[in-house]
Specification:
By secondary structure, the protein is of the alpha+beta class. It contains 2 helices and 11 strands, in the order H-E-E-E-E-E-E-E-E-H-E-E-E. Helices cover about 30% and strands about 35% of the residues. The strands form 2 sheets. Strands 1, 2, 3, 4, 5, 8, 9, 10 and 11 form a 9-stranded antiparallel sheet that branches.
């Protein structure tokens, strides 16, 4: 009888350790930028779902890239916990008369990004005050 109780106790402890490990793994994932393609839906208080701006996160080479309205761009980021440093953007140099205002707003907003919050469905880029400045949803 003592062996059965001891075996059950070990099984319960093992399950508890596995459960704690799972919680820690989930927390670590939320502190990481996840590989994903997004459509930018909002910048500040401006809804821009129809603009076709994109954002692609690639943690393997620490880049965020996409389409900014007229040009393609790439940021090489550094990540320390949930603090992200995007550095400077590299972008193509085309001029598009009808989309330069939106593109300039995009680069202005990206320059103030220092934090993020992501899930499998969306990413929110935030400034140092924690305000969401860019919202993007997962591309289908």
């Amino acid at each position: 009888m003592k062996r059965i109780i001891s075996a059950n106790l070990h099984l319960i402890l093992f399950g508890f350790v596995v459960m704690l490990g799972s919680c820690k793994a989930q927390k670590m994932t939320s502190d990481q930028l996840m590989t994903q393609n997004y459509e930018i839906t909002q910048m500040g208080d401006r809804a821009i779902s129809d603009s076709k701006l994109t954002l692609k996160v690639n943690p393997e080479n620490s880049t965020i890239s996409g389409f900014s309205g007229c040009n393609n761009y790439t940021y090489s980021y550094k990540l320390d916990n949930k603090v992200v440093d995007l550095g400077y953007a590299r972008a193509t140099k085309m001029y598009c008369d009808d989309s330069m205002e939106l593109e300039n707003l995009f680069f202005q907003k990206m320059a103030s990004v220092t934090q993020f919050e992501n899930s499998k469905e969306a990413i929110h880029l935030k400034n140092k005050q924690g305000e969401i400045i860019i919202k993007a949803k997962k591309k289908d």
